Amino acid sequence: MRRQYLFFQIISSLILILLSASALAVAFDYFTWSQMEAFLAIPANNWGLIAGSVLVLLFAIWALIDAFRGPSGRDVVIHESGLGRVEIADSALENVIRRAARNVREVREVKPILRTDQDGLVVKLLLNVNPDANLPEVSKFVQEIVREQLEKKVGVQVSKVEVLIRSVATEVRPRVE
Asked: Could you say which of 61, 101, 121, 174 is the most buried, measured as most Cβ atoms within 10 Å of its Cβ?
């Protein structure tokens, strides 16, 4: 579950608990309208109520916009026929990309970031490579192998494969005592 939805769920639950408790307190005569009027007669309480109301209003608008935005997880259509559509999830594409990039000996770690444009799939690779690697050669080879794997094995049209070498990892040498 995304953190936004968890946050939304917690805040919504707290607001509903507060509203329900307030309604029950009024229903069972724990609070009377005259007590509420006396509470609101103090200017500081009015400002607190205004600030809380604005905060709840902004939160409700944010939740409404987020609800209409739609799901963020994208599925890429591989094949469409009379029998139906075949899609592949981003997580599956990321696994294919990781496996392909790890076949390059100089690559230690890869983190793919996927997006789409009108020409196809755009793949951005964040790489950690060995310190003795020839960076231009490794980058080009990783681009080629990732594009080849995605187009031939998965059937996805790739428009770009961008590479960002995030770090050149140093080799860990054992300590001699």
From this structure: 101
